[in-house]
């Protein structure tokens, strides 16, 4: 214990940085555990679609959506979604909504907007369409 106190006394800036990193990690973990928006993997996506009639909303550009998407997914324009225009999804408000983007990074802001707009269950495909492809799961293409 004395070594810790000595280290903190000799290196106050490093100690503060370490403390900030620990607080950020712990708060991020709590935030993800108690968030209304859940990250799911491709297998969990399949279970939600099959068991709870989940709706898959693909927010990638139209070109990417046409080149390959998860079967029965609907295209949701990212621009409209950022403005909270969810007309395509209004009739599915009580169903689970799963957002799919390219890598799983851009969907969180839109997921927050969905939750604020009254959608009950919002999920994000962790890793996005890339994780779906890496799992070797089927895709459909065309309009």
Going by CATH, the architecture of the largest domain would be 3-Layer(aba) Sandwich
Would you report the number of β strands? 5
Determine Rg (CA atoms, Å).
Answer: 20 Å
- What integer is the average pLDDT? 90
Examine the coordinates and then state which fold CATH places here, giving the name of the CATH topology of the largest domain.
Oxidized Rhodanese, domain 1
**Beta-strand proportion:** 5-15%
How far apart are the first and last residues' alpha carbons, in Å?
65 Å
> How would you classify the quaternary structure?
single chain
Largest sheet: 5 strands, parallel
* CATH structural class of the largest domain: Alpha Beta
Number of domains: 2
Uncertain spans = none
Query: What is the CATH homology-level superfamily of the largest domain?
Result: Rhodanese-like domain
- Order of helix and strand elements from N to C terminus: HHEHEHEHEHEH
Describe the structure.
The protein is of the alpha/beta class. The protein folds into two domains: 2-32; 37-134, Rhodanese-like domain (Oxidized Rhodanese, domain 1). Helices cover 50% and strands 14% of the residues. It has seven helices and five strands; from the N terminus they run H-H-E-H-E-H-E-H-E-H-E-H. It has helices at residues 2-10, 12-34, 42-52, 62-67, 78-82, 107-116, 128-134, and strands spanning 37-40, 55-58, 74-75, 96-100, 121-125. It has a five-stranded parallel β-sheet with strand order 1-5-4-2-3. The radius of gyration is 20 Å and the shape is elongated. The model has no long low-confidence stretch (mean pLDDT 90).
């Amino acid at each position: 214990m004395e070594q810790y106190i000595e280290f903190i006394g000799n290196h106050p800036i490093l100690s503060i940085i370490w403390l900030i990193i620990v607080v950020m990690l712990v708060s991020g973990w709590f935030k993800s555990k108690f968030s209304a928006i859940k990250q799911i993997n491709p297998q969990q996506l399949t279970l939600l679609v099959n068991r709870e009639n989940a709706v898959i909303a693909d927010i990638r550009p139209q070109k990417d959506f046409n080149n390959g998407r998860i079967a029965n997914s609907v295209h949701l324009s990212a621009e409209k979604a950022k403005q909270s225009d969810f007309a395509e999804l209004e009739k599915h408000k009580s169903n689970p909504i799963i957002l799919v983007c390219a890598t799983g990074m851009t969907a969180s802001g839109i997921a927050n907007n969905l939750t604020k707009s009254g959608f009950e269950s919002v999920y994000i495909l962790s890793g996005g369409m890339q994780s779906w492809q890496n799992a070797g799961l089927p895709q459909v293409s065309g309009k």
